[in-house]
Amino acid sequence: MSDPVRTAVVTGGGTGIGRGIVRLLAADGWRLAVLGRRRTVLEEVAAETGAVVVAADLAEPGEVERATAEVVAALGPIDAVVLNAGSAQRGPQETLEQVAAHWMTTMAQNLLPTVLVEHALRPHLRRPGGRVVAISSASARVAGGEVAYAASKAAMNRWVVGLAAVLGREGITVNGVAPGFVPDTELYDGTLDPAWVEGAAHRIAVGRVGAPEDVADAVRWLISDGTGFVNGTVVEVDGGRRA
User: Fold this and answer.
1) Quick one: CA torsion of 131, 48, 74, 25, rounded to 10 degrees?
2) Per residue of the chain (243 residues), what is the pLDDT tens digit?
3) Burial class (CB in 10 A: 0-12, 13-18, 19+), 107
4) Burial code of 34-56, b = ≥16 C-beta within 10 A, e = fewer?
5) Which domains does the chain have, with CATH numbers?
6) What does the alpha-carbon distance between residue 168 and residue 112 come to, in Å, rounded to a whole number?
7) What's the chain look like in SS3?
8) Distances (CA, A) of 207 to 1, 98, 228
9) CB 58 within 8 A of CB 86
10) Would you name the residues annotated as active-site residues?
11) Are 20 and 186 in contact (CB under 8 A)?
């Protein structure tokens, strides 16, 4: 008898790291639902992978409820949830109103979709053996970078630890992946100077910058059947940058 097809949900799966995760899991035979705000980019990755497309604003509770109903109708019980949706904000922060708007938007785009989607899909996760993986960032643990974005990812890391203690008792593991410098994402929106990227590579122990596939490989491991005793941790995928 062949093994049952495993099912996974990937948020923010239309571009960058999310797209890399969807492609790798599809190649491994997973049945997938890909969620995000922009249907166009979702449909592009779906055409490559056969994933189910669910377009929704994942920071809006009503939209998350609708998306959850569509996902469950398409996939049934869920083996893994990969929470990748998020972005970094740029803009002036001179007045208090601008600072407040920047921080509120950053948290809404990075932390809130993670919390809402997990909470909505939690009843549909396989027990035991379900997997939850949140895509954090190395910026949460090092100096530099956009501080509101880094703070939202640091909050995510703490959320991973707390949720792992709760769901671990149900046989579900919760972990995070903290990518280092991965230029091929929409966080940078094609604004990076190639010479600067080359210099950054020299400051990383392995001598190169990261790729979406590097992060996808870590996710593949964390949602595998062999990681049932890995729970409440954030795996750094940064090429040894801090070293």
Assistant:
1) -20
2) 457 899 999 999 999 999 999 999 999 999 999 999 999 999 999 999 999 999 999 999 999 999 999 999 999 999 999 999 988 877 788 999 999 999 999 999 999 999 999 999 999 999 999 999 999 999 998 877 789 999 999 999 999 999 999 999 999 999 999 999 888 776 666 667 788 678 878 888 899 988 999 999 999 999 999 999 999 999 999 998 765
3) middle
4) bbbbeeebbeebbeebebbbbbb
5) 7-237 (3.40.50.720)
6) 22
7) CCCCCCEEEEECCCCHHHHHHHHHHHHCCCEEEEEECCHHHHHHHHHHHCCEEEECCCCCHHHHHHHHHHHHHHHCCECEEEECCCCCCCCCCCCHHHHHHHHHHHHHHHHHHHHHHHHHHHHHECCCCCEEEEECCHHHCCCCCCHHHHHHHHHHHHHHHHHHHHHHHHCCEEEEEEECCCCCCCCCCCCCCHHHHHHHHHCCCCCCCCCHHHHHHHHHHHCCHHHCCCCCCEEEECCCCCC
8) 45, 38, 32
9) no
10) 149
11) no
- The residue type at 84: N
pTM above 0.90, yes or no: yes
